[in-house]
Protein: Ureidoglycolate hydrolase
Amino acid sequence: METHLLRKIPAQPLSPEAFRPFGQVIVASDDHTPFGGADAQLQLQNGIPRFYIMRLHQRGRKFHQITRHQRCTQCLGSLGGKEWLLGVAPPDATALTAWEQIVVFCIPGNCFIKLEVGTWHAGPYFDDSCIDFYNLELSDTNLVDYDTCNLLEHYGVEFEIV
Structure:
């Protein structure tokens, strides 16, 4: 029987400063506020943008896969004010080093996050039985821009969010 390392990883609170290496935290702004740096800085020019609501069912708090998209930014947020968790690693990391740099954020339901192009991510994870998320990416992101690394197979590591 093969053994693997189960690495327990705490979820840290989300802040714009802590999340900056991975993307942006977007919070509410007043209507008529001019476009600026607090708005999501999107890169969707490589295809047809797709904005949709995806329904996810609870999958526990363990993960052993991490994915990145190298053709576009991705925005995620929960509907209904639900809190959720996301593991991330820097966009410039290779699959080899990504697992060693993973951090997990607890994302409140009153904001959304924008992942930079190439940011490794695992999740969303949550404790509710089901949460709907809005997702902005390209129409073919999950077909042609889905670079996934199985951390268990390649490095013998699995994560558990605590």
